[in-house]
Amino acid sequence: MTTLTPLHVLMLGAGSGIAQATARLYAAEGAVIGLAGRNAERLDAIAHDLTARGASRVEIFEIDFVTAEPAQALADMVAKLGGGDHFILAYGVLGDQAAAERDLTAAQTILDVNFRSAAGWALAAANLLEQQGHGSLVVLGSVAGDRGRRSNYVYGAAKAGLAVLVQGIDHRFRGRGPRAVIVKPGPTDTAMTAGMAKGGPLWATPEAVAAVVRKAADRGGPVVYAPARWWLIMTIIRAIPAAIFNKMNF
């Protein structure tokens, strides 16, 4: 449904499956949407789809999040978009844990993309939101950040740090108007997980996670699991004693 005053939404990492599914929800509301990412051709195709789905206007921003300077780049994008009500930070790389253990450069790339770069963009968005006194920052984290596991602890460490940062931003916002939420999906069927065996009740679709992200932009948080069952699953996993946990192979 189109509103008289459409939301202005900036998708950081708009090419991801979850970001696209979330953008479609905003398009159905008639939002003005900014798509930021590295592949302009891909973004252009997404923009046409969103326009057909009801978006008031779609702007494309070709950018490398790791090398760009977040504060100025974000200010420029918001200016062209005409405002910034919701910021959705959805980019990241899973990486290869085995490669990261052998090659510190590979490990550094995982940490740079998923924490250092993402933290910079989150802080830049937080400053803009605080200046205007309203709006939301929603950041895609992961249940992998809840407890270190041998299969993905470098990626998990980056997501754990990002979760603490976003929770701190939300605490900083208390009573000032804006809000910040870290959304922690479980395994989701996207391009990032293309090499994994899928299926079973623990896997989610991008659309299911997108519904949680869209809701989180309006209410809830500062920590939200997607789907909600992962709150119980991770509560149990965090409670497993180390002596037992260390014998588990996952």
Automatic annotation (TrEMBL):
Single GO MF descriptor: oxidoreductase activity
UniProt keyword list: Oxidoreductase
Coiled coil regions, renumbered to chain: none
Matching Pfam families: adh_short (PF00106)
Record keyword Oxidoreductase present: yes
Entry's family note: Belongs to the short-chain dehydrogenases/reductases (SDR) family.
Protein name, per record: Short-subunit dehydrogenase
Organism of origin: Rhodopseudomonas rhenobacensis
Lineage: Bacteria, Pseudomonadati, Pseudomonadota, Alphaproteobacteria, Hyphomicrobiales
